[in-house]
Amino acid sequence: MKNKNTAGHLAALLTIIIWGTTFISTKILLADFQPVEILFYRFIIGLLALLVVYPHRLRGTTRGQELTFAAAGLCGICLYYLLENIALTYTLASNVGVIISVAPFFTALLSHIVMKEEKLRANFFAGFAVAMAGIFLIGFNGSRLELNPAGDLLALLAAFVWACYSVLTKKISGYGYHTILTTRRVFCYGILFMLPALLLSDFKLEPGRLAQPVYLFNMLYLGLGASALCFVTWNFAVKVLGAVKTSVYIYMVPVITVVTSAFVLHEQITVLAGAGTVLTLAGLFLSEGKR
Q: Structural domain tally of the chain?
């Protein structure tokens, strides 16, 4: 059991490390791709990769289970990323980064209400307060706090939607199916729900753009790494650790972003960003503690 818990923590950590670096690939691709196009291509690549890795069918599902898969696809694959991208057009990236980090708090509340076995502990709320203080320092380091109601509310809604996805993933893990099969089914529903957004946007089916090595590499990184691999490892972590314990790893995303920016983009880590990183990690360990 201890080894399984360790595997769950390592899976969550690997997922967050990759997700924390995706901003670089997304930033590069945005030069020639729309946000919804990047979203569509990355999950198509992810779906195909999971089909190649585990070419088996998911059989024997009930109507209720299929509805849960569909809800997870709508929340975690379609709505979360669309809301986040739309929020970025209305408000500052720092606002979105901080607000999205509220997701573990929503996850804890929903898990307590829906999944009765997930108990709310004082250390979780203490860790949440410490981590949010650190994330706030990282997000608004050297910049002014600017409230943009429309964008900020969309970011808050995105955080709530991700919490819904986490709870749904925990429920799906109880069905006993292989994690790759359930992740693939969720991808299918997510892509299906994404189609109306593609039709409403100026979507261009021009795969020739991926002939450029820099675009191809970054799209594959998002599709194979951030989608196919990470959603499987995240769902595995939720299955082993629970929705609440896994969700607190979201606190690390701004930390990974700061470190990656320093190494890849050669951005300087300021005193505030350093202090914020220490607080965020302290909040993570406090939330994960048993007392």
A: 1
